[in-house]
From TrEMBL:
AAA+ ATPase domain ranges (all copies): 218-367
Family statement drawn from the similarity comment of this UniProt entry: Belongs to the AAA ATPase family. BCS1 subfamily.
Molecular functions (GO terms): ATP binding; ATP hydrolysis activity
UniProt keywords, alphabetically: ATP-binding, Hydrolase, Magnesium, Nucleotide-binding
Domain of life, source organism: Eukaryota
Gene3D superfamilies: 6.10.280.40, P-loop containing nucleotide triphosphate hydrolases
Protein name in UniProt: AAA+ ATPase domain-containing protein
């Protein structure tokens, strides 16, 4: 090898040797590039935001290794933590089904003349991602990996989502952040009832394909009923926080016609909870006396509409029913509709049937099991306490709402003192009830 090397160096001029080496390098480099496929993902597409670009921005920081040398970081309002992003100086390597995929952020800066009158040049930054992988993996990347990036992004968005509450004002919705901290852990509900509600919500989320198969809109209706102060609003907030759904609070008193109702409801988004509170306060949905019972030939919907007063230009129960189970009900997906009332018996049965209000949730006065949750939440008492049995006995005799007991527990910071004062309060209530 030494003799051969000496012979080549002596017999072949330097210029020719350099030419041969460059040709060999180019050959192997071209061969390697021909086995690579590159996809460019621009920040915008036809003037609109490219969702795949947004997904890559959120997805890639979670794939950055500890050896990564260059990062962008920042603090965005309403984000709890510092946000991290990749820059254009390093590639990010991801692996999917034993496929190596390489991402690189491409940053281009272009200057634009603002016009003859204002010749000042403005700089615009164009961003895109370049995704590179081997040619033989093209089908898997296009059919599975891109979908994986998008679905991961959507899951991250749902987790980080700031839930909004919308209220109707005039002819438009006003929105603000839903800051209510209620969760199912803190709700003073019977544990079995709480388990049933969570199970029903989770089952609803899983059944998109079933709803599509049977030809039903992907929505579910709940009726929350019970005395004031039993936690209806807190339960709605807990459901919103559990599902990560926005809330639309619809005041029927601000709805003057069926067309107003349809317009307002058509502006609600998917993955949302539509709340109609105190439904019994609207006389259009009260029980109606009819002299004729439904005949066998009448369908439920026919009977509903024959015996409801239809007032032209006014909001009516039939308009609400059309949204809940008519053609208008298909105007959105993944919707929860919640009605609240203090008096279920006042509501027209046409509104209470399954398919409209699928699950009726009775929120009643405080019992012993639910009180344990209040004691844990407000006083930090876990397990048993000597005063619990006495309190349970008093709660069984009285009709006390969770709101009243919670207020009593907040009056003292010392758990022992708080429970002793609660016993005195309940005994006084019991004494007054006997008078």
């Amino acid at each position: 090898m030494m003799l051969l090397r000496t012979a080549i160096n002596d017999l072949i001029p330097h210029q020719i040797r350099s030419l041969i080496v460059s040709k060999l390098k180019a050959f192997f480099s071209d061969h390697q590039r021909n086995n690579q496929v590159s996809l460019q993902i621009n920040q915008s597409w036809d003037g609109q935001t490219n969702k795949l670009f947004q997904a890559a921005q959120e997805y890639l920081p979670a794939r950055i290794s500890h050896s990564f040398k260059s990062l962008k970081i920042g603090k965005i309002p309403k984000h709890k933590n510092v946000v991290v992003a990749v820059d254009g100086t390093q590639e990010v390597v991801d692996h999917f089904q034993d496929i190596k995929l390489t991402w690189k952020l491409i940053e281009e800066t272009s200057n634009k003349d603002s016009g003859r009158d204002f010749p000042k040049m403005h700089s615009f930054e164009k961003l895109s991602f370049k995704l590179t992988f081997e040619e033989r993996h093209r089908d898997v990347v296009m059919s599975k990996y891109i979908s994986h990036v998008l679905s991961t992004y959507e899951a991250m968005q749902a987790e980080q989502k700031t839930i909004k509450i919308h209220s109707i004002g005039g002819r438009s919705w006003r929105k603000s952040d839903l800051t209510h901290p209620a969760s199912f852990d803190s709700l003073a509900l019977d544990p079995e009832q709480k388990k049933d509600i969570i199970g029903d919500l989770d089952r609803f989320l899983r059944r998109k394909e079933l709803y599509k198969k049977v030809g039903k809109p992907w929505k579910r209706g709940y009726l929350l009923y019970g005395p004031p102060g039993t936690g209806k609003s807190s339960l709605i907030a807990a459901m919103a926080n559990h599902l990560k759904f926005d809330v639309y609070d619809l005041e029927l008193s601000s709805v003057y016609s069926n067309s107003d109702l349809m317009r307002a409801l058509s502006e609600t988004s998917n993955r949302s909870i539509i709340v109609i509170e105190d439904i019994d306060c609207n006389r259009e949905v009260h029980v109606r006396s009819t002299s004729k019972a439904p005949s066998d030939s009448d369908s439920d919907s026919d009977y509903d509409r024959k015996h409801l007063k239809v007032k032209t230009g006014r909001f009516t129960l039939s308009g609400l029913l059309n949204y809940m189970d008519g053609l208008w009900s298909s105007g959105g997906e993944e919707r929860i509709i919640i009605f609240t009332t203090n008096h279920r018996e006042r509501i027209d049965p046409a509104l209470l049937r399954p398919g409209r209000m699928d699950m009726h949730i009775h929120l009643s006065f405080l019992g012993g099991k639910a009180f344990r949750i209040l004691a844990s939440t407000y006083l930090g008492i876990e397990g048993h306490h000597p005063l619990f049995e006495q309190i349970d006995g008093l709660l069984d005799k009285l009709q006390v709402t969770p709101a009243v007991v919670a207020e009593q527990l907040m009056r003292n910071e010392d758990p022992q003192v708080a429970l002793e004062e609660l016993v005195k309060f309940l005994k006084q209530m019991d004494k007054e009830s006997l008078l």
